[in-house]
Structure formats: structure tokens, C-alpha cells
Design goal:
Layout lengths: L3 H5 L9 H8 L5 H18 L7 H9 L2 E7 L3 E7 L3 H10 L11
Antiparallel strand pairs: 1-2
Helix pairs in contact: 3-5, 4-5
Length: about 110
């Protein structure tokens, strides 16, 4: 599972590990993904500081490759989620939706 905090932490003061990390996740490299990392980082920092984050860029990435459920049969119905869109659009949506472990949660 891709975590937003892992995505953001690919940039350290010593190096940028984004290309290697994306490869390890099976995701493609693109300038759009680099831009999304900055947008996710800004949103996470705003939320951490109690400010309302700008979620518009993340929502745009999610809309670029909407998820849908697919039913298959394996002795019973199996439900899986897939995304439409090209490889980069799918990667952007996965990364934009990776929210566990860094976003404050409301009860």
C-alpha cells in the first residue's frame, strides 16, 4: 500500500529518491508526479498545522483516473477496484488518494 507520507519523504535534504521509490512501487516517473508530491506535501503540512489544506490538486488527480469496482468469479464473487486512464493518470490518482498515516482523521 502506498502511503502519502512515504511519497512526500522521498525528498530529503540529502537526495531526491522519487525515481527509485516510484520504480519500487511499480509506478511511472513523470513531471506531473513530481508536482503532485509538492502539492501533497503542502496539504499535509497545512493539515498538520491546523489549517485547511488545498485539496483541489489532489481531487483533480483522483478525477483523472476514477476507480471502479470489477466483479470476477473464483468459486464466488470477488470484488476488486481498478482505475481508468493512462499509466500516469492512474499513478497520480493512486498517489493523491494515498492518505493513511499522514492526514488528521475526524472521529
Amino acid at each position: 500500500m502506498v502511503l502519502a507520507i512515504d511519497f512526500v519523504n522521498t525528498l530529503t535534504s540529502e537526495e531526491d529518491r522519487l525515481p527509485q521509490w516510484l520504480s519500487e512501487q511499480g509506478l511511472p516517473w513523470s513531471e506531473a508526479i513530481l508536482e503532485l508530491r509538492a502539492q501533497v506535501e503542502a496539504a499535509v503540512l497545512a493539515a498538520r498545522d491546523g489549517l485547511e489544506p488545498d485539496l483541489a490538486p489532489l481531487n483533480a488527480a483522483l478525477r483523472g483516473a476514477p476507480a471502479f469496482e470489477v466483479l470476477t468469479w473464483s468459486g464466488g464473487v470477488v470484488v476488486s477496484r481498478e482505475r481508468s486512464g493512462d499509466e500516469v493518470a492512474q499513478a497520480l490518482a493512486v498517489l493523491a488518494g494515498a492518505r493513511r498515516s499522514c492526514w488528521p482523521h475526524r472521529p
